[in-house]
Amino acid sequence: MQYRVTAAESGYMTERMAECRPRPHPETAAIPQRLYLNVFGLSTLQALYSHANQSCFPEHIHTMLNHKLTGRILFINRSSCTDICSIMEAFGPVMLHLLLAEEEEERERKQQRHIGRAPVQRPKDKALPVSAHKQPVHGMRRTPKPRVFRERTGLEVFTEEEIIQRYRLNRSAINELYELIKGDIDPLTQRSHAIPGMVKLLNCLHFFASGSFQTRTSSIGGVSQSAFSRFMGPVIDSIKKHLKAYIYFPKDKAGWQRVKRGFYRIAGMPHVMGVLDCMHIALSPPHEREELYRNSKGFHSVNVQVICDCKGKILSIYSAFPGSSQDSVILKQTSVYEAFENGKLTGGWLIGGPGYTCQPWLLTAVANPTTTAEDSFNEAHARTHSVIERTFSSLKSQFKCLDKPGGVLQYNPTRVADIIVVCCILHNIGIKHNVLENFACEADDDELEALLSGEPELGDNSLAVHSRIIKDYFSGQSSWSQPDTG
């Protein structure tokens, strides 16, 4: 390999030769035992030798240099290359300025070896001083961590009991849900170890069931925390899209009759279409308008309105109200209130808790009972209302992410509302597949069918409706017109 000196290099060396004469120099002791020359340094060495001796390199030195040149760096050992080192010692002050430090070149070679990139390119019109090994090398990247692909968990490794304990749904329920949403969560490619849609769904189900932090949930499910954080939102959104397929009021008269029969079997309360109440789900408060989310119990939450049937199945849910909202105020802002007020929902009433005022279609307990009939009504009201209390208890025990003792949800209010809705959907799926508890059993009793088949006239006076129910069903007298069952 031949090295020719350019005009710029020749000018540079001429200036240096005016200052340096070929003589031994005390600084030669600083030359390391192993020398590293870049291409420019080698060209300069060749030019200096030619200028001082009026001749080119000896043939044996030239052959040895070509043999030892590797890439763009020349490795020279003083013990084996005495001729070259004597030349360097003669031009010590200049050559010390042209040498590359051993430590820096080691770093460069390691960088090239580990990350497969070319060494850092330096300007060719200026050599790097020896002191550069004490300075940071610009342009170098830190060696990336190797990718570790964890073993991803699927349903096939668990028994049916383990699946229910881990995900709160059985195998058939999970497969049904996956078939419903797989078009939204399955990866578009199998490259780069793309996470399958089933793995995404199982990780989210485990998060809802356990209420653990993302780091623990993801490590158990075989994905990284960052990957879990990325796909959790799309999975939640894809499940929420099917809200109306699982949370709805009965669509026909036969469906309403089943609900009414179930409630009547609980405590003898007639024509009950559902039980209404609110629950608080704790969350980390947002920075803006934090006071809106502080409830009367002193912690931050969202106030969730729920209507359920006799089996604890959720018929309606509103989860977007801050914790400071009153139950009765929330009700008046929902479509349920509008439907009952406008007569779209008729034929019975809801059972409400103490946070509501009595309406012709909403029964509350008598505040100060004075008769035996009123006491009996309050007792039946409490037993019927307990269905929704058990529903709330079931939701929070099955899905620990909703339970305050397990820690508050560390998400913004919108995402918290979505998580609550998804947990309610999963609750109904569990009831459909007989995984979760059913609170009441139906009875196809002919007497109940005759008793509850008629639709009472509610009227506009809530107190009058209240009094008639107490009189007709809890005092032994009856004035409601029943259809002829003859």
Automatic annotation (TrEMBL):
Q: What highest taxon heads this organism's lineage?
A: Eukaryota
Please state which protein family the record places this protein in: Belongs to the HARBI1 family.
| UniProt cofactor(s) | a divalent metal cation
Q: Which PANTHER family match?
A: NUCLEASE HARBI1-RELATED, PTHR22930
Give the UniProt keywords, A-Z.
Answer: Cytoplasm, Hydrolase, Metal-binding, Nuclease, Nucleus
Q: Where is the DDE Tnp4 domain?
A: 276-428
Q: Which protein, by its recorded name, is this?
A: Putative nuclease HARBI1
User: What subcellular compartments does it reside in?
Assistant: Cytoplasm; Nucleus
InterPro entries tied to this protein = HARBI1-like (IPR045249), HARBI1_animal (IPR026103), HARBI1_dom (IPR027806)
Which GO molecular function entries does the Swiss-Prot or TrEMBL record give? hydrolase activity; metal ion binding; nuclease activity
Give the signal peptide range: none
The encoding gene: LOC100494438
What's its job? Transposase-derived protein that may have nuclease activity. Does not have transposase activity.
**A Gene Ontology cellular-component term:** cytoplasm
Residues covered by region (Disordered): 107-141
